[in-house]
Write a sequence for this structure.
């Protein structure tokens, strides 16, 4: 029995190694779920830059009123003229076109934050780089050979990969390893830092807002749910515990 266990655990080792090899470091997405203005900006970026290819059918436009947007604002800033506010955020493009144009159908993004996690999305949207071997001219650090072009490139600018030559000790051959990305051409949100380098803070903020909106879409009730959770805990602590204590005293009074 023990031998069998040892063999089974050994069999798992290569898997773990493979998993950690392909892993790119993920940057931590700032949590802004309690910041309605950040979520509104995220919704706007989503409507302007993503909705042409991706839908979010579990999200109805009028639900955006929960974020503090008025119906008029939603209509004039976020919607195509033909839609009504009670409708879900449907994709503008036909699925078959997506497949033909990009080699893959852009998935619905309603629950993408639950599938990928906020940190993955935050890193993904900031690590597109130029790659002439790809049909779109773009590749991505966390999604190798991705079918999606860098739709935010005007805002971010263009990044190019930086390679390092490493000798493979097993084969003796030299290999190119992608070690980092460098901003080659600045975008609309790029600022020039004091030392003359590029400052990407504004782009990072824009992506953070968008990612928070994606998280919000995946579970609009999340913040409320957490608040209810705290309220229940407080109730138990300050109301139920004292009541139980006094009840116990009352019951035992005659016995002592
Ligand atoms: C021009 C069309 C297009 C636009 C616009 C677009 N995407 Fe995509 N997206 C795609 C395609 C195509 C894929 C599928 C890529 C693949 O599977 O190789 C994709 C994939 C993705 C994925 C990965 C899904 C997965 O498989 O886990 C995410 C996340 C994503 N897009 C987010 C966004 C966001 C956020 C925006 C807006 C800023 C956006 N996309 C705008 C075409 C687009």
């Amino acid at each position: 029995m023990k031998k069998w266990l040892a063999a089974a655990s050994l069999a798992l080792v290569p898997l773990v190694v493979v998993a950690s090899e392909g892993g790119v470091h993920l940057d931590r997405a700032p949590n802004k779920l309690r910041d309605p203005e950040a979520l509104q900006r995220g919704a706007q970026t989503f409507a302007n830059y993503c909705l042409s290819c991706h839908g979010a059918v579990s999200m109805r436009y009028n639900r955006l009123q929960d974020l503090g947007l008025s119906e008029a604002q939603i209509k004039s800033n976020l919607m195509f003229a033909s839609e009504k506010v009670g409708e879900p955020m449907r994709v503008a493009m036909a699925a078959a076109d997506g497949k033909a144009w990009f080699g893959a159908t852009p998935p619905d993004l309603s629950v993408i934050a639950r599938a990928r996690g906020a940190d993955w999305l935050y890193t993904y949207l900031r690590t597109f780089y130029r790659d002439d071997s790809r049909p779109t001219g773009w590749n991505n650090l966390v999604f190798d050979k991705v079918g999606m072009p860098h739709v935010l490139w005007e805002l971010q600018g263009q990044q190019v990969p930086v390679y390092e030559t490493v000798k493979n000790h097993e084969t003796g051959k030299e290999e190119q390893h992608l070690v980092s990305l460098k901003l080659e051409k600045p975008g609309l949100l790029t600022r020039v830092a004091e030392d003359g380098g590029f400052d990407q803070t504004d782009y990072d903020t824009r992506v953070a807002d968008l990612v928070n909106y994606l998280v919000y879409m995946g579970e609009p009730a999340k913040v409320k749910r957490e608040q209810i959770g705290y309220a229940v805990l407080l109730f138990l602590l300050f109301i139920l515990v004292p009541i139980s204590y006094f009840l116990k005293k009352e019951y035992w009074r005659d016995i002592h």
User: Anything to note?
Assistant: Residues 122 and 211 are 6 Å apart (CA to CA). The first helix runs from residue 2 to 22. The chain has two domains: 23-220, 226-256. The longest strand covers residues 174-186.
